[in-house]
Design goal:
metal-binding; ten-stranded mixed beta sheet; IsoPropMal-DH-like_dom; binds 1,4-dihydronicotinamide adenine dinucleotide; alpha/beta; 360 residues; 2 domains; binds magnesium ion; Isopropylmalate Dehydrogenase
C-alpha cells in the first residue's frame, strides 16, 4: 500500500496548509502501514523566482513518474505582471498530464456546514453527489478566432475525449453497491457536440457498465433543479467543460456553504491524479497562520480514495473534519478558523483534525 507523490506546495498559504495536510498523511501511514514517498518541488511564483518559469521541464517530467501530484495553490500579486504568470504552471501540468476529469464532490458530512448554507436546510440535507467536469476539451480549447467584429470558439468533442471522461463516471458509479446512477448533462436539443456526447456516452455505458443507469439531463434544467431539488442528483454527474465550469460553481454554496474558497476539495484525475483545494493562495492572509487547512486535508482524502483506493482512510479523514466542524454543536470546544467565524489558527485547527483522526 502507498506510492510515490510529487508535492507542489506553491505560494503563500499553499505551503502552510500543505504542511498540515501532510501531518495527517503521517498519521494515516502509521495507522494503515502504507508508505508514501514524497518529493517536493516548485510550481508557480516560487518557481518563477528560482527558474524564471512557472514550472520547469524537470517538474513536468517528475509528474509523469509519480502516482499522484499533491498541489497547494499558486499565484500572488507580487508576480502580477510577470510572463509567464504563476498560475500557468498548474495549467501546463494539467495539459501535459491530460488531466481531463475534474471532480468536485458535494455532500454534507457536517451539520454546522448545512446550517451555514444559504440554501434551506431541508433542501440540501442528504445531498451527496460527485460532479465530473471534462477539463481538456470543448469550447475552452481549439482554434479560436478573435477579430475586431467577430469572435469564435469552436465547441468540439472527439470520441476519445468523451469516452475517457464518461468512463471515469462509470467506474466511480461501480465503486458502490448497488451502483450509483450517472447523469450526463448536455444541450443535445441545440448542440451537435452534445448529441455526439450523448450517443457515445450511451455506447460506452451499454458496453462497459451495463449495471449502471445512465440518464440524460439538459444542463439548463439541471442548473435549476440543483437549487430546488439537489438530492435528485445523488450519484454521479458528468458533463462537458463549459457546463461543468458553471455547474461546479453552482454546487459551491451547497458544498461549502457561504464560502466556496475555504471548503471542498477539487481533484482532477487523468493519466495521474492531481489533487488541490478549490481556493487559491490567499495572499491577504498568508504568513499569519490563519489559513483554514480543511480544503487541503479534504484533497488529501480524495487522493487516498481515488489514486490509492484507500477508502477506509479517506472516510476516516472526512469524518474527523466533520467532527471538528461540529464540535461546538455537539457540546465540545469550538475550533474554527476566522473564515468560519472562529478564533483558531491553522495549527490549532490542524491539530484538532489530527487528534480526531487518531481517535477514530
Ligand atoms: P483565494 O481563494 O486565494 O482567496 C479568496 C478569499 O478567500 C480571500 O479573502 C482569502 O483570504 C480567502 N481564503 C481562501 N482560501 C482560504 C483558506 N484556506 N483559509 C481561509 N481563507 C481563505 O482567491 P483569489 O483571492 O481570487 O486569488 C488569490 C491568488 O490565488 C491569485 O493569485 C489567484 O490567481 C490564485 N489562485 C490560484 C488557484 C490555484 O492555484 N489553483 C485557484 C484560484 C486562485
Ligand atoms: Mg469557474
Amino acid at each position: 500500500k502507498g506510492g510515490k507523490l510529487l508535492v507542489l506546495p506553491g505560494d503563500h498559504i499553499g505551503p502552510e496548509v500543505v504542511t498540515e495536510a501532510l501531518k495527517v498523511l503521517d498519521i494515516i501511514e502509521e495507522y494503515s502501514g502504507a508508505k508514501f514517498e514524497r518529493d517536493f518541488d516548485l510550481c508557480g511564483g516560487s518557481s518563477l523566482d528560482k527558474h524564471k518559469d512557472s514550472v520547469t521541464e524537470e517538474v513536468l517530467k517528475k509528474c509523469e513518474n509519480v502516482d499522484a501530484v499533491f498541489f497547494g495553490s499558486a499565484g500572488g500579486p507580487e508576480w502580477g505582471t510577470s510572463q509567464p504568470n504563476p498560475e500557468s504552471g498548474l495549467l501546463r501540468i494539467r495539459h501535459r498530464m491530460q488531466i481531463f476529469a475534474n471532480m468536485r464532490p458535494c455532500n454534507f458530512a457536517s451539520k454546522s456546514m448545512v446550517r451555514r448554507s444559504p440554501i434551506k436546510e431541508g433542501i440540501i440535507r442528504g445531498v451527496d453527489f460527485m460532479l465530473i467536469r471534462e477539463n481538456c476539451g470543448g469550447a475552452y480549447y481549439g482554434n479560436k478566432i478573435e477579430e475586431e467584429d467577430y469572435g469564435c470558439d469552436p465547441w468540439e468533442y472527439r470520441r476519445s475525449e468523451i469516452e475517457r471522461v464518461v468512463r471515469v463516471a462509470g467506474a466511480l458509479a461501480m465503486q458502490h453497491d448497488p451502483p450509483l446512477t450517472v447523469w450526463s448533462a448536455d444541450k443535445a436539443n441545440v448542440l451537435a457536440s452534445s448529441r455526439v456526447w450523448r450517443r457515445i456516452a450511451h455506447e460506452v455505458f451499454d458496453k462497459e457498465f451495463p449495471e449502471v443507469t445512465l440518464r440524460d439531463q439538459l444542463a439548463d434544467s439541471l442548473a435549476m433543479l440543483f437549487i430546488t431539488k439537489p438530492t435528485a442528483f445523488n450519484g454521479v454527474i458528468v458533463t462537458d467543460n463549459t457546463f461543468g465550469d458553471i455547474l461546479s460553481d453552482e454546487s459551491g454554496p451547497p458544498a461549502a456553504p457561504g464560502h466556496k474558497p475555504t471548503l471542498g476539495a477539487n481533484s482532477a484525475g487523468g493519466v495521474i491524479g492531481l489533487y488541490e483545494p478549490v481556493h487559491g493562495s490567499a495572499p491577504d492572509i498568508s504568513g499569519k497562520g490563519l489559513a483554514n487547512p480543511v480544503a487541503q486535508v479534504l484533497s488529501l482524502a480524495m487522493m487516498l480514495r481515488y489514486s490509492f483506493n484507500m477508502h477506509e482512510e479517506a472516510d476516516l479523514i472526512e469524518k474527523a473534519i466533520a467532527n471538528v466542524l461540529d464540535s461546538k454543536e455537539d457540546g465540545g470546544l469550538e475550533v474554527r478558523t476566522g473564515d468560519l467565524g472562529g478564533k483558531a489558527g491553522t495549527r490549532e485547527m490542524s491539530e484538532a483534525i489530527q487528534g480526531e483522526v487518531k481517535k477514530l
